[in-house]
Amino acid sequence: MAGNDMAVSGKPGRVTTATFSGPRSCRHDQAIAAGNDRGQSTRWSRSVFDFRLRRATAASGALSYHHLCSCQPANRSQAINSLPYDNAVLAERALAIADNARELAALGWTPATSSNFSMRLDPRHVAVTVSGRDKGKLGADDIMVVDLENRPVATSARPSAETALHTQVYRRFPAVGAVLHTHSRAQSVASRLFARAGNVRFEGWELQKAISGHHTHESVLDLPVFPNTQEMSELVSRVDAWLDAGKPLHGYLIDGHGIYAWGVDMAEARRHLEAFEFLLNCELDLRRLSA
Ligand SMILES: [Zn+2]
After folding, report:
1. How far, in Å, is the centroid of ligand 1 from the Cα of 124?
2. 177 - beta bridge partners?
3. Ligand 1 centroid – CA 6 distance (Å)
4. Of 32, 74, 259, 260, whose CA is between 20 and 30 Å from 128?
5. What is the pLDDT of residues 172-189, one digit of tens each?
6. What is the pLDDT of residue 206?
7. pTM value?
8. What is the Å distance from ligand 1's center to 184 Cα?
9. What is the distance in A from the centroid of ligand 1 to the CA of 15?
10. CATH 3.40.225.10 assigned to 87-289
């Protein structure tokens, strides 16, 4: 984060406490500007470095504070939002992630704080869920920013353990805008059942057409199953190897774990995720009924 700036997020109406990190050599009153994701800004003059602020924030609760002390003219020219990403875009994406995560949690696909979700902010930054949060109750504080090398940006929060699998998708597919990872029962059971084959092959299902690029039930749709590991670099290598072999990839299962699916935007990612869930349930039912 640039020089004297800091970002604080809070929930609407909540007391937000922040410590201003400007130079203590400054003897002038500090002018603090706060900008929210609607582009509004307000100024306060303070002679202390710590301030307490009660303010109804915008929906995302995202605020940026900036040191605009007159003793440092250079600071005056800083834009309200000098974060390396667009705060308004983050607010919008965070809302979309929270809304979709709540719906997926209601379906029972994110048990026990599992699962993680992300959306691209720009070519270099991704909004991703903070580790270990209840996906049915995500707020602005539960979504953070990382760069494409998995480094947290302008936050001390810890991203989901599997963030590397999200950023890999964004690096490999520049058009992808959203990545969803869930742990539904069907995804978990199917991943065990098809682990030995290393792949689930869907053929003859009308719903294959829900996957981008598939225009007929007569197409063949492969969903690979990669072995589970707590070493994310191993999983990243397996996904890279699949893609480097030139095989199409719209999503994948991890053995005993869950699914990853993605799309150019949240709507397409949801459609892909729901199609895979439906198709996996169909394959499981066929095996149950023909047992
Ligand atoms: Zn997981």
Report:
1. 23
2. none
3. 32
4. 32
5. 999 999 999 999 999 999
6. 92
7. 0.73
8. 10
9. 33
10. yes
| Whether 186 contacts 284, CB under 8 Å | yes
CA of 246 to the centre of ligand 1 (A): 25
Residue 177, class by beta-carbon neighbours within 10 Å (0-12 exposed, 13-18 middle, 19+ buried)?
Answer: buried
Cβ(250)–Cβ(279) below 8 Å: no
82 CA to centre of ligand 1 in angstroms: 33
Q: What's the pLDDT score for residue 215?
A: 82
Q: Which pLDDT belongs to residue 214?
A: 87
The one-letter amino acid at 240: D
What is the distance in A from the centroid of ligand 1 to the CA of 75? 43
Ranges of the chain with pLDDT below 50: 1-81
- Ion ligand 1: residues, CB < 5 A: 258
Predicted confidence (pLDDT) per residue in 93-135, tens digit: 999 999 999 999 999 999 998 899 999 999 999 999 998 888 9
Asked if CATH classification 2.60.40 holds for the domain at 6-76, the reply, yes or no, is yes
Beta-carbon contacts of 74 under 8 Å, excluding residues fewer than 6 positions away, are: none
- pLDDT for 216 equals 83
Annotated domain spans of the chain = 6-76, 87-289
Question: Which tokens go with 218?
Answer: 């007569």
